From TrEMBL:
Name this protein carries in UniProt: MerR family transcriptional regulator
InterPro entries documented for this protein: DNA-bd_dom_put_sf (IPR009061), MerR-type_HTH_dom (IPR000551), MerR_fam (IPR047057)
Species per Swiss-Prot/TrEMBL record: Rhodococcus pseudokoreensis
Transmembrane segments: none
One Pfam family linked to the record: MerR_1
Domain called HTH merR-type: residue spans: 3-71
This protein's record includes keyword Cell membrane: no
The entry's keywords: DNA-binding, Plasmid, Repressor, Transcription, Transcription regulation
Keyword Repressor set for record: yes
Protein backbone atom coordinates (compact mmCIF):
# COMPACT_ATOMS: atom_id res chain seq x y z
CA UNK A 1 0.00 0.00 0.00
CA UNK A 2 1.34 3.41 -1.01
CA UNK A 3 1.39 6.39 1.32
CA UNK A 4 1.40 10.03 0.34
CA UNK A 5 2.29 13.27 2.04
CA UNK A 6 -0.32 16.01 1.65
CA UNK A 7 1.66 17.71 -1.13
CA UNK A 8 1.90 14.41 -3.03
CA UNK A 9 -1.81 13.72 -2.63
CA UNK A 10 -2.60 17.25 -3.83
CA UNK A 11 -0.51 16.66 -6.95
CA UNK A 12 -2.03 13.24 -7.69
CA UNK A 13 -5.65 14.25 -7.09
CA UNK A 14 -5.52 17.83 -8.40
CA UNK A 15 -7.10 19.01 -5.13
CA UNK A 16 -5.21 21.86 -3.40
CA UNK A 17 -3.62 21.09 -0.05
CA UNK A 18 -5.75 23.78 1.62
CA UNK A 19 -8.85 21.95 0.43
CA UNK A 20 -7.52 18.60 1.68
CA UNK A 21 -7.12 20.13 5.13
CA UNK A 22 -10.63 21.54 4.88
CA UNK A 23 -12.01 18.11 3.93
CA UNK A 24 -10.25 16.65 6.95
CA UNK A 25 -11.79 19.30 9.22
CA UNK A 26 -15.21 18.63 7.69
CA UNK A 27 -14.86 14.90 8.31
CA UNK A 28 -14.73 13.93 4.63
CA UNK A 29 -11.11 12.78 4.64
CA UNK A 30 -8.89 11.24 7.28
CA UNK A 31 -5.12 11.12 7.60
CA UNK A 32 -2.62 9.24 9.67
CA UNK A 33 0.22 11.07 11.41
CA UNK A 34 3.88 10.21 11.27
CA UNK A 35 6.08 10.37 14.36
CA UNK A 36 7.09 13.83 13.16
CA UNK A 37 3.47 14.93 12.93
CA UNK A 38 3.16 14.97 9.13
CA UNK A 39 -0.11 13.93 7.50
CA UNK A 40 0.07 10.75 5.40
CA UNK A 41 -2.67 9.27 3.24
CA UNK A 42 -3.21 5.90 1.63
CA UNK A 43 -4.53 4.83 -1.78
CA UNK A 44 -8.06 4.90 -0.39
CA UNK A 45 -7.76 8.68 -0.06
CA UNK A 46 -7.18 9.01 -3.82
CA UNK A 47 -10.32 6.99 -4.55
CA UNK A 48 -12.23 8.93 -1.92
CA UNK A 49 -11.28 12.27 -3.45
CA UNK A 50 -12.40 11.02 -6.85
CA UNK A 51 -15.80 10.20 -5.40
CA UNK A 52 -16.04 13.58 -3.67
CA UNK A 53 -15.17 15.43 -6.89
CA UNK A 54 -17.76 13.43 -8.81
CA UNK A 55 -20.44 14.24 -6.24
CA UNK A 56 -19.54 17.94 -6.30
CA UNK A 57 -20.01 18.00 -10.07
CA UNK A 58 -23.63 17.02 -9.38
CA UNK A 59 -24.04 20.12 -7.24
CA UNK A 60 -24.34 18.17 -3.99
CA UNK A 61 -23.48 20.09 -0.80
CA UNK A 62 -20.73 18.79 1.45
CA UNK A 63 -23.22 17.60 4.08
CA UNK A 64 -24.90 15.29 1.55
CA UNK A 65 -21.53 14.18 0.20
CA UNK A 66 -20.60 13.20 3.74
CA UNK A 67 -23.75 11.07 3.98
CA UNK A 68 -22.93 9.45 0.65
CA UNK A 69 -19.39 8.66 1.75
CA UNK A 70 -20.70 6.68 4.71
CA UNK A 71 -22.60 4.47 2.25
CA UNK A 72 -19.73 4.37 -0.27
CA UNK A 73 -17.37 3.10 2.43
CA UNK A 74 -19.47 -0.07 2.66
CA UNK A 75 -18.41 -1.01 -0.87
CA UNK A 76 -21.90 -1.75 -2.24
CA UNK A 77 -22.67 0.22 -5.41
CA UNK A 78 -26.39 -0.55 -5.25
CA UNK A 79 -26.62 1.15 -1.85
CA UNK A 80 -24.75 4.21 -3.11
CA UNK A 81 -27.08 4.50 -6.11
CA UNK A 82 -30.13 4.16 -3.88
CA UNK A 83 -28.91 6.94 -1.58
CA UNK A 84 -27.79 9.19 -4.43
CA UNK A 85 -30.99 8.97 -6.48
CA UNK A 86 -33.19 11.23 -4.28
CA UNK A 87 -30.33 13.72 -3.95
CA UNK A 88 -30.03 14.05 -7.71
CA UNK A 89 -33.82 14.25 -8.00
CA UNK A 90 -33.80 17.20 -5.58
CA UNK A 91 -31.11 18.94 -7.65
CA UNK A 92 -33.25 18.49 -10.76
CA UNK A 93 -36.16 20.09 -8.92
CA UNK A 94 -34.00 23.05 -7.92
CA UNK A 95 -32.79 23.50 -11.49
CA UNK A 96 -36.32 23.23 -12.89
CA UNK A 97 -37.55 25.90 -10.45
CA UNK A 98 -34.81 28.27 -11.53
CA UNK A 99 -35.56 27.59 -15.19
CA UNK A 100 -39.28 28.27 -14.61
CA UNK A 101 -38.56 31.55 -12.83
CA UNK A 102 -36.15 32.73 -15.51
CA UNK A 103 -38.44 31.59 -18.34
CA UNK A 104 -41.36 33.57 -16.89
CA UNK A 105 -39.21 36.64 -16.48
CA UNK A 106 -37.80 36.23 -19.99
CA UNK A 107 -41.36 36.20 -21.36
CA UNK A 108 -42.14 39.35 -19.43
CA UNK A 109 -39.04 41.07 -20.81
CA UNK A 110 -40.00 40.02 -24.33
CA UNK A 111 -43.34 41.78 -23.86
CA UNK A 112 -41.62 44.93 -22.64
CA UNK A 113 -39.26 44.81 -25.62
CA UNK A 114 -42.24 44.55 -27.97
CA UNK A 115 -43.82 47.62 -26.35
CA UNK A 116 -40.58 49.57 -26.60
CA UNK A 117 -40.31 48.70 -30.29
CA UNK A 118 -43.57 50.58 -31.00
CA UNK A 119 -43.47 54.28 -31.93
CA UNK A 120 -42.88 56.48 -28.91
CA UNK A 121 -45.69 58.78 -27.76
CA UNK A 122 -45.30 62.54 -27.82
CA UNK A 123 -44.04 64.17 -24.67
CA UNK A 124 -43.01 62.54 -21.42
CA UNK A 125 -43.31 58.90 -20.43
CA UNK A 126 -46.75 57.71 -19.49
CA UNK A 127 -48.49 54.52 -18.35
CA UNK A 128 -48.77 53.20 -21.92
CA UNK A 129 -45.33 54.06 -23.30
CA UNK A 130 -43.66 50.80 -22.34
CA UNK A 131 -40.98 52.42 -20.18
CA UNK A 132 -42.93 51.89 -16.97
CA UNK A 133 -43.98 48.58 -15.46
CA UNK A 134 -47.58 47.86 -16.37
CA UNK A 135 -50.03 47.54 -13.44
CA UNK A 136 -51.11 44.04 -12.52
CA UNK A 137 -54.34 42.65 -13.95
CA UNK A 138 -56.17 39.38 -13.52
CA UNK A 139 -54.53 38.00 -16.66
CA UNK A 140 -51.15 39.73 -16.56
CA UNK A 141 -49.88 39.94 -12.98
CA UNK A 142 -46.93 42.20 -12.38
CA UNK A 143 -43.68 40.29 -12.12
CA UNK A 144 -42.32 39.76 -8.64
CA UNK A 145 -38.63 40.67 -8.31
CA UNK A 146 -36.66 37.44 -8.21
CA UNK A 147 -34.32 37.09 -5.26
CA UNK A 148 -31.97 34.13 -5.20
CA UNK A 149 -29.87 33.59 -2.11
CA UNK A 150 -27.04 31.08 -1.76
CA UNK A 151 -25.77 31.15 1.79
CA UNK A 152 -23.52 28.71 3.61
CA UNK A 153 -24.96 26.80 6.52
CA UNK A 154 -22.35 26.95 9.28
CA UNK A 155 -22.66 25.18 12.58
CA UNK A 156 -25.22 26.56 15.06
CA UNK A 157 -24.05 29.79 16.64
CA UNK A 158 -21.67 30.60 13.78
CA UNK A 159 -22.13 33.02 10.88
CA UNK A 160 -21.02 32.74 7.26
CA UNK A 161 -17.88 34.62 8.30
CA UNK A 162 -16.87 31.57 10.36
CA UNK A 163 -16.91 29.13 7.42
CA UNK A 164 -13.35 27.86 6.74
CA UNK A 165 -11.70 29.66 3.82
CA UNK A 166 -10.87 26.87 1.38
CA UNK A 167 -11.57 26.43 -2.33
CA UNK A 168 -12.19 22.92 -3.63
CA UNK A 169 -11.24 23.72 -7.23
CA UNK A 170 -7.99 22.56 -8.78
CA UNK A 171 -5.63 25.13 -10.28
CA UNK A 172 -6.96 24.71 -13.83
CA UNK A 173 -10.57 24.76 -12.66
CA UNK A 174 -9.96 27.91 -10.63
CA UNK A 175 -8.39 29.65 -13.63
CA UNK A 176 -11.37 28.72 -15.80
CA UNK A 177 -13.83 29.94 -13.16
CA UNK A 178 -11.97 33.24 -12.78
CA UNK A 179 -12.13 33.74 -16.55
CA UNK A 180 -15.88 33.06 -16.55
CA UNK A 181 -16.43 35.64 -13.82
CA UNK A 182 -14.37 38.20 -15.71
CA UNK A 183 -16.45 37.70 -18.85
CA UNK A 184 -19.64 38.27 -16.86
CA UNK A 185 -18.24 41.27 -14.97
CA UNK A 186 -17.35 42.91 -18.28
CA UNK A 187 -21.13 43.35 -18.77
CA UNK A 188 -21.64 45.16 -15.45
CA UNK A 189 -23.28 48.59 -15.53
CA UNK A 190 -22.13 49.66 -12.08
CA UNK A 191 -20.47 48.54 -8.87
CA UNK A 192 -20.59 49.65 -5.25
CA UNK A 193 -18.17 48.79 -2.46
CA UNK A 194 -19.90 47.56 0.71
CA UNK A 195 -18.78 46.13 4.04
CA UNK A 196 -16.86 42.88 3.43
CA UNK A 197 -17.60 42.89 -0.29
CA UNK A 198 -19.24 44.63 -3.20
CA UNK A 199 -22.49 44.94 -5.14
CA UNK A 200 -22.42 44.71 -8.92
CA UNK A 201 -25.30 45.69 -11.20
CA UNK A 202 -26.07 44.14 -14.57
CA UNK A 203 -28.69 44.61 -17.28
CA UNK A 204 -31.69 42.30 -16.86
CA UNK A 205 -30.82 40.29 -19.96
CA UNK A 206 -32.20 36.73 -19.46
CA UNK A 207 -29.04 35.02 -20.72
CA UNK A 208 -26.83 37.19 -18.52
CA UNK A 209 -29.09 36.63 -15.50
CA UNK A 210 -28.92 32.86 -16.01
CA UNK A 211 -25.11 32.93 -16.29
CA UNK A 212 -24.65 35.04 -13.15
CA UNK A 213 -26.98 32.73 -11.21
CA UNK A 214 -25.13 29.66 -12.50
CA UNK A 215 -21.73 31.04 -11.52
CA UNK A 216 -22.93 32.14 -8.08
CA UNK A 217 -24.36 28.68 -7.40
CA UNK A 218 -21.18 27.00 -8.63
CA UNK A 219 -18.98 29.30 -6.56
CA UNK A 220 -20.98 28.61 -3.43
CA UNK A 221 -20.48 24.91 -4.06
CA UNK A 222 -16.68 25.16 -4.09
CA UNK A 223 -16.16 28.20 -1.84
CA UNK A 224 -18.78 28.07 0.91
CA UNK A 225 -17.24 31.08 2.66
CA UNK A 226 -18.66 33.40 -0.02
CA UNK A 227 -22.07 34.94 0.72
CA UNK A 228 -24.10 35.58 -2.46
CA UNK A 229 -27.38 37.42 -2.94
CA UNK A 230 -28.95 37.94 -6.36
CA UNK A 231 -31.83 40.39 -6.66
CA UNK A 232 -33.61 40.51 -10.01
CA UNK A 233 -36.07 43.28 -10.81
CA UNK A 234 -37.62 44.17 -14.18
CA UNK A 235 -34.85 46.59 -15.07
CA UNK A 236 -31.69 45.26 -13.45
CA UNK A 237 -29.87 42.43 -11.70
CA UNK A 238 -27.91 43.17 -8.53
CA UNK A 239 -25.28 40.71 -7.36
CA UNK A 240 -24.04 41.15 -3.80
CA UNK A 241 -21.04 39.11 -2.72
CA UNK A 242 -19.34 39.15 0.68
CA UNK A 243 -16.51 37.18 2.22
CA UNK A 244 -14.81 36.99 5.64
CA UNK A 245 -11.72 39.08 6.19
CA UNK A 246 -9.38 36.14 5.61
CA UNK A 247 -10.81 35.75 2.10
CA UNK A 248 -10.65 39.41 1.06
CA UNK A 249 -7.67 38.72 -1.21
CA UNK A 250 -9.69 36.14 -3.12
CA UNK A 251 -12.68 38.48 -3.21
CA UNK A 252 -10.48 41.14 -4.80
CA UNK A 253 -8.91 38.65 -7.22
CA UNK A 254 -12.21 37.24 -8.51
CA UNK A 255 -14.48 40.29 -8.35
CA UNK A 256 -12.18 43.28 -8.10
CA UNK A 257 -13.44 44.25 -4.65
CA UNK A 258 -11.46 46.91 -2.79
CA UNK A 259 -11.84 45.56 0.74
Amino acid sequence: MSTYRISQLAEISGVPATTLRFYETAGLLSAERTASGYRVYGDEAVERLGFISSAKHLGLPLEEIGDLLEVWEQGVCASVRQRMLPMVTDRIGDADNRIAELTAFSAYLAGVRADLSEPAPDGACGPDCGCLTAPATSTTPAPVPLTLERRPEPAPGLSWRDVPVACTLSGDEYGERAQQWQQVLDSATGREEIDDGLRVRFPSDPNLVAEVARLAAAEQGCCAFFDFTLHLSPDALALTVRAPETAHALLAELFGAKV
